[in-house]
Amino acid sequence: MQPKIITIIMLTLLLVLTSCGHPVDPAPAAVGPAPSVENQPIEAPTPVSATAPTPTPAPVVMGPALTVSPAYNIKEHVTYSGARSNQKKLVALTFDDGPDSKYTDQILNLLKKQNITATFFVIGEHAAAHKDVMKRIISAGHEIGNHSWSHSDLTKLDEQQLEAEIDKTDEVIQSLTNQPTTLLRPPYGAVSQQVIEYAEKSHKIVNWSVDSRDWEGISTDRILQNIKKEVRPGAIILQHSAGGKNGNLSNTVQALPLIIAYLKEHGYQFVTVSNLISQNVPNQ
Ligand SMILES: [Zn+2]
Q1: How far, in Å, from the CA of 183 to the mean position of ligand 1?
Q2: Which of 44, 99, 232, 241 has a Cα at 20 to 30 A from 128?
Q3: Helices and strands (DSSP H and E) totals, the chain
Q4: Does the active-site annotation cover 97?
């Protein structure tokens, strides 16, 4: 055996012997930055992906690369529900994607019959096209929130596009209500640090805690079951007042009286999102 090979064997043996009996050091913890959360939609805390379907999102335009602080906690900036109080069992019904000329009116009629106020997160271009329906929503005392101008995924836009989606919708709402809206619900519930930093300047970002999944074309009974399963005091319930699978939301309309009856039976009071958050129950 050559001296070189003998040396290698001896060194190897020495290494093995000196490590015997010593615990192996744990692998060093990863110290690099946390994975970027940029452009990753945050879903509401519901079991299935929380998405709203309509209208089809605009073609994806990738925004510039963002530096996201690893410590930035997106969920801290989003409201999913109000306080969970058993003394005041409050619940907020919310209707997205309207107004339209078909279903929004039917929903307004049902809410009026029951003397209930709700919150409508409107798409700016729909609000501009259906100002008469907007006026009906407003005069009935419902709250209006911003749901972007064209239902784009706001996390996919550059700064200018993002600001236009929010600002143009604010302007059309303010032109009808004479006051700025303080609520924003991003389409699909999707937010990024960039979206939050701009939206938070003048809005509270509001998603939902209960997804009725009404837009999927599911039966009236399934819609009701989805709500029964998740509803708690302080819940924000997601429904729609326009769109739906193949443009059909008739099950949402049919389910609404059943949902209201169930919630009333269980002692819930219906309030707008702003009143839910502030635990304010106006006289109705
Ligand atoms: Zn939507």
Answers
A1: 14
A2: 44
A3: 9, 9
A4: no
